[in-house]
Amino acid sequence: MSTQSTAGRRILSLILLIGGVCLLVGALILDFTGSPLTFRGPMLIIGAVAIIVGAYLYPTVKNHRKIINVLFLFPLLFTFAVTVIIPLVLGVFYSLTDWNGIRFNKFIGLENYTTMFNEPSFIWSILITILFVVFNMILVNVVGFLLALLCTSNLKGLGFFRASYFLPNLIGGIVLGYIWQFVFNNVLTEITEKISGNQASILSTTSTAFAGIIVVYIWQYAGYIMLIYITGLTQVPKDVLEASQIDGANRIQTLFKIKIPMIASTITICTFLTLTSAFKQFDVNMALTNGSGSVADFMGSYLTNGTQMLALNIYNTAISKDNYAMGQAKAVFFFIILAVVSLVQVRISNKKEVEM
């Protein structure tokens, strides 16, 4: 590149950079001062584009490619920082204060954490959440895998079956909870009354209501997991399956000796998704039972939140009880549990992949 051409690119680059910065600063000033002018948005966009183009055209910058990569990744990195990293750091900070949702007056250290671990209802929510996760991580994967086997067979109308099984996943959790609440409290009670004369609803006792939440969650989520298993099963090489048939392997042997080992990575993904989703269960729990249910004696206390899982407990602590600092401390603890369990699960699953 000639010296004259390099100088021209440098001048153009500087003009774009300076102009872009001026447009960005001007748009921000107009926004902060509450100006009625309506072209602040276009100024912001044009300024950002001008800065990116100017940085790209500048000819003598070291690590030019890295700078361009950062510029184009900046919107995603900025969004991730604003929505995840910064709230996480602020959450840890507020959990150490007496924050009321707007401001805090003093630091109280680990007082929120010690208080929540002395709260029987919180300990109960942790226990039933872990129980819920164990049941659903197993049952959702088993049901989803069986549905995937059905939908990769030679049956007619497989497209209809796939769409039907996936359809519940498209229904929002709140709506789904109210639909099943009606089913449990009205439809099933009418059936059981005609059969046995007992009109009690499944949601009337803590143990059966907890089982009802598990049923609804499986009904909603198994279709989504089914699609992932279908993708894994369709990727199994057909020549390997044909070779197993020639060698005399039956369907059970083919399933356990060939198909399952060859979709080990798919199993890892599905177990991770069901694990994290079950831990974060909130909407169905809220709509179906709102956490109600009696527990006669737990840690010397009578509890009325027998079906309240961890996410709903955090919500009720912060919103219903107006104790934001305590709710934030519980949320931080929830994040630690979820992160540790997820990492351990992925590590174990990856180790199993290697063995298989």
Description:
With 356 residues, the chain is an all-alpha fold. It is built from 14 helices and 2 strands. The protein has a two-stranded antiparallel ribbon. α1 (3-32) packs antiparallel against α2, α3 (64-94) packs across α14 (324-355) and α11 (264-279) packs antiparallel against α14 (324-355).
Keywords, separated by commas or semicolons:
356 residues; 75% helix; 2 strands; extended; two-stranded antiparallel ribbon; mainly alpha
Describe the protein's topology:
Layout: H1 3-32, H2 40-57, H3 64-94, H4 111-117, H5 120-151, H6 158-166, H7 173-196, H8 206-234, H9 238-246, H10 251-262, H11 264-279, H12 283-288, E1 295-298, E2 301-303, H13 310-320, H14 324-355
Antiparallel strand pairs: 1-2
Helix pairs in contact: 1-2, 3-14, 4-14, 5-6, 5-8, 5-11, 6-8, 8-11, 11-14, 13-14
Oligomer: single chain
User: What percent strand?
Assistant: under 5%
Please report the distance between the alpha carbons of the first and last residues. Answer: 56 Å
Tell me the number of helical segments per DSSP (H or I, 4 or more residues long): 14
Secondary-structure element pattern, one letter each: HHHHHHHHHHHHEEHH
Structural class: mainly alpha
Report the uncertain regions: none
Using the alpha-carbon principal axes, give the shape.
Answer: extended
Please state the CA-atom Rg, rounded to the nearest Å: 28 Å
User: Average pLDDT value?
Assistant: 85
Strand order of the main beta sheet, please?
1-2
Percent range of helical residues: over 70%
Largest sheet: 2 strands, antiparallel
Number of beta-strand segments? 2
